[in-house]
């Protein structure tokens, strides 16, 4: 233990040390018998006092009543060397009645021949409040992202139904009427016109089905997840020309609709990134269920990227991460330049 009253230290170096302590930007204090027996100007200023005013004050005059016993308990622990040193954030009352948050690091010492606690303190009120505000802002942004994603899926579902049922039904009626006109048409010219109209109507019906499928894949409502992923992979290969393999040992996996949609959208965004950025020659997908957890992995042999550097797909990666977080899952992206990219999703089934 250190004795601050050691006679051998009352020399010029000790005077310089005392001057240094008084000029420090961190607060220095000594507590003994439930009172401040020493304080430099910085420590006193945190509470709005001078060093002379703080010296002799009791803990109860500076520590809020609801936190006083906590502070006393920690002082007793340090005096008992259990542990002899402690680092934490405490609360103190300012002269104006406000509460200040102070980060302290206190240790047991010997002061005037008796045990005491000496500590170093820094006012972190603004830092802690800024961190708390940042945390709240992050939570609000996450809530907003989840709300926006859910609303978007609701709109997609409604639009897909309208496009498929309403617009599709209208086009089917037009095709049927055109077919009846063709049967009654007598001139070759009218036959050709109606035939062209029927063909154009059928093309429009097919386009409507594609739009509806893009908005809300029907496989998600009528088939299991592995079948929906297989359909999306086939479409991916048809559009991009990149071959794929699917190893799914969860052929009958059915999740709650919200979870199914989140997994599907993550997978879909992953394939979009492969198509746009990877220059891959092959894509391999595995789907597993183990210990009540879904494990989905998508690996391409493309050019890869530096995961620490922001890029054009940053928003897509953020969207996937938020969707994973929303269902209590974890998303990991492993990639390196020239070594392809591996996307791994793990999420609870319920």
Summarize the structure.
The chain is α+β, with helices and mostly antiparallel strands and about 350 residues long.
Which key phrases capture this entry?
350 residues, alpha+beta, 5-stranded antiparallel sheet, 5-stranded mixed sheet, 10 helices, 10 strands, disordered N terminus
Structure notes:
The chain is α+β, with helices and mostly antiparallel strands and 350 residues long. Helices cover 51% and strands 22% of the residues. It is built from 10 helices and 10 strands. The protein has helices spanning 12-23, 41-46, 51-54, 65-79, 125-184, 188-215, 219-222, 225-240, 257-278, 314-326, and strands at 27-32, 35-39, 85-93, 99-111, 114-123, 244-248, 283-290, 293-300, 330-335, 341-348. Strands 2-1-5-4-3 form a 5-stranded antiparallel sheet, with helices on both faces. A 5-stranded mixed sheet has the order 6-7-8-10-9, with helices on one face. β7 and β8 form a beta hairpin. The longest helix is centred in the middle third of the chain and has 60 residues, at 125-184. Mean pLDDT is 85; it is low at 1-13.
- What is the arithmetic mean of pLDDT? 85
Structural class: alpha+beta
The global form is elongated
Oligomer: single chain
- How can the largest sheet be summarized? 5 strands, antiparallel
Strand content: 15-25%
Q: How do the strands of the widest beta sheet line up side by side?
A: 2-1-5-4-3
Fraction of residues in helices? Answer: 40-55%
Provide the low-confidence segments as ranges: 1-13
Number of helices: 10
Amino-to-carboxy terminus distance = 56 Å
SSE run:
HEEHHHEEEHHHHEHEEHEE
Determine Rg (CA atoms, Å). Answer: 35 Å
The number of E-state strands comes to 10
């Amino acid at each position: 233990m250190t004795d601050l009253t050691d006679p051998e230290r009352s020399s010029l170096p000790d005077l310089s040390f005392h001057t240094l302590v008084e000029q420090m930007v961190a607060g220095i204090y000594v507590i003994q018998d439930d009172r401040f027996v020493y304080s430099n100007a910085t420590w006193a200023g945190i509470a709005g006092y001078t060093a002379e005013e703080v010296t002799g004050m009791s803990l109860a005059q500076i520590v809020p009543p609801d936190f006083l016993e906590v502070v006393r308990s920690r002082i007793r622990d340090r005096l008992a060397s259990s542990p002899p040193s402690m680092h934490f954030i405490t609360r103190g009352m300012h002269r104006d009645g406000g509460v200040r948050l102070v980060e302290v690091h206190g240790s047991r010492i010997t002061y005037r021949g008796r045990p005491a606690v000496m500590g170093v303190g820094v006012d972190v009120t603004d830092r802690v409040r800024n961190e708390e505000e940042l945390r709240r802002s992050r939570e609000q942004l996450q809530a907003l992202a989840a709300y926006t994603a859910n609303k978007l899926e609701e709109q997609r579902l409604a639009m897909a139904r309208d496009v498929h049922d309403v617009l599709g039904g209208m086009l089917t009626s037009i095709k049927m009427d055109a077919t009846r006109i063709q049967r009654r048409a007598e001139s070759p010219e009218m036959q050709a016109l109606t035939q062209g109209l029927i063909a154009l109507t059928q093309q429009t019906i097919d386009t409507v089905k594609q739009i509806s499928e893009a908005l809300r894949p029907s496989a998600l409502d009528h088939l299991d997840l592995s079948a929906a992923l297989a359909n999306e992979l086939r479409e991916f290969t048809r559009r991009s020309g990149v071959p794929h393999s699917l190893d799914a040992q969860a052929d009958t996996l059915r999740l709650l609709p919200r979870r199914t949609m989140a997994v599907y959208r993550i997978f879909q965004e992953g394939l979009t990134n492969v198509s746009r950025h990877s220059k891959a020659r092959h894509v391999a997908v595995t789907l597993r269920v183990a210990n009540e957890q879904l494990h989905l992995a998508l690996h391409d042999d493309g050019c890869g990227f530096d995961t620490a550097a922001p890029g054009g797909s940053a928003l897509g990666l953020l969207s996937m991460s938020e969707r994973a977080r929303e269902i209590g899952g974890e998303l990991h992206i492993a990639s390196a330049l020239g070594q392809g990219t591996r996307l791994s999703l793990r999420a609870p089934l319920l």
